[in-house]
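Lab meeting, action items carried over

1. Structure of the two-component assembly. Owner: GW. Status: complete.
Input record:
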Amino acid sequence: MTNTVAGSTSDPLAKPKRRSRPPWRRGEAILGFIYILPATVILGAFHFWPMFYAVYISLHRWRVIKQGYVGLANYEWVLKNPKFWNALKVTVYYVVGTVPVQLTLALILAYILYQPIKGREVFRTIYFLPYITSTIASGAVFAWMFSPQEGPINRFLTKLGLPALRWLLEPRGVFTILGEYLHLPWLKGGPSLALVTIMIFVIWFWVGYDATIFLAGLGSIPYELYEAAKIDGANRWQLFRYITIPLLSPTIFFLSLVAMIGSFKAFNHIFIMTDASSGTVGGPLDTTTTVTILFFKNFYETPTYGKAAAIAFVLFLIILVLSLLQNWLASKRVFYME
Amino acid sequence: MISITLPLGQRKHVRLSVLQLLLYVVLIAGAIIAMFPFIWMILTSFKSYGEVTAGRFFPRELRWHNYVEAWNAAPFARYFLNSIFIALATIAGDLFTGILAAYAFARMEFPGRNVIFFLFLATLMVPGELTVLPNFLTIRKLGWYNTYEAQIIPFTASVFHIFLLRQFFMGIPRDYWDAALLDGCTHFRFLFSIVVPLSRAAIVTVALLSFIGSWNAFLWPLIVTSSEKMRPIQVGLRSFVVEEATQTQLMMAAATMVIVPIIIFYLFTQRQFTRGIMTTGLKG
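Predicted assembly:
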């Protein structure tokens, strides 16, 4: 900050530079602090302080009230707990089963919507609808749609001559079910059908949002590039593969990061869908208990705050590492246009 | 708004119309899937209990009475009023802290400004799961358990919203400020008579994001409320769903009451909303 007072006040018209304003004056400095004070107080109390407080809680035996200091015992409990590893497995299933599918579907829809098609705006509005509804209401509607007795999905399946399924009440793996149906005994395991039902909801919920972001990304690709490539004789697939995809890679990266972090934090819809169908959050048989649901159970259902805080901190570390990893990958693969 | 014609529309072959037909089939199938849950929800909300269990797709008559029954089965009026009040108070607080802080970061010079802003941004990395438990203990210590304060105060500042507003404020030409300064204008007057009116689009976007976040909040109000009097609509809907588990048509009526106002609201604010989403790429 090496400015002179001269520029801005004495001769404003002859002042071409940005930095010709005086450096901070005392009055402005104080005023600045006053302006950021309300936000700082709220953020300090509910965003900064809890980070340290969470670590503090996780180092204690803490049921409803604080008991004794236990060092890293809660973390040891987490890492040696088969429930935690099961929750991590469920979370990985959830991420792998939702993120690629929703992004692919969204990209296809966005690419179609980007063409000169009549009624584009109407379609876009419709696709976006799921995203604006509360996950509690729409999750509950899904739970009833997939209800084994009255749900329209099972009725539709039986009309097609397919077996009715137990959906949110089914703890067996989808491949096991498929293997039984096709009489292939070697086909086993996979995420439970209950978890897959939740994944169907997640994909339904996010595709329109992803497509909207993709549309924004598509809109920023200069038309001249397509023109030039067409003059060089590129066909439609080549245009998509060698122009659209590379130039869209920052958007793809952004969306996959948001979707992945969102998956690790997923809570509301899993809560309501399992609660409304079987009455057990994270059920049946814990096959839909993600890390976040496990945290909730150790916090709300049985108040073991020390353990819950340790789970939350481990979750935070996982998200942090994944974001850094994805960032590193992106720096090698993502093409940014200047 | 996308108004560029793309490769596909350029050629005029007969083949194209077949392809276009195919695209429409995909688009319409997608639209049906996106809307089916809502259609089914609304249809079911008009059915009788017998029609639900018999699995009829369309109701024989529109039983509006289901809505009356659902409305009376739980204190929905209270839930809605709570949610509206909480959302409005949150928006007001969020805009108040956000506009002031964003302006200070964008236009004022004070020591440590960049460091503080960086610290603000750093909190974006921290997931809500980590802060929910300590915040719950803080709320209890403050004596705010089962109050409106607990559901409003923690959300009256958002780093993300401050960031958005700051980006927008920085786009306002510096010359305006220099000119205003010459006329002896104060920061306060400049902010409220020049910056805020010029930033209406950004402010509306932030208000919408704040509203959606508050309206759809579930986990936090679930843990900090214990009585029906304080519950917002999402938590109320959940307890209705769990308690009335057999009366599907009533639950659908309740879900319709929660979802349809938001859909109408969205259709009216659509332009602002999608622009907000497209530029920010994030919810709440």
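2. GW to write a short summary for the group page. Key points so far: Residues 73-280 of chain B form a domain with the MetI-like fold fold (CATH 1.10.3720.10). Residues 248-280 of chain B form the longest helix (33 residues).
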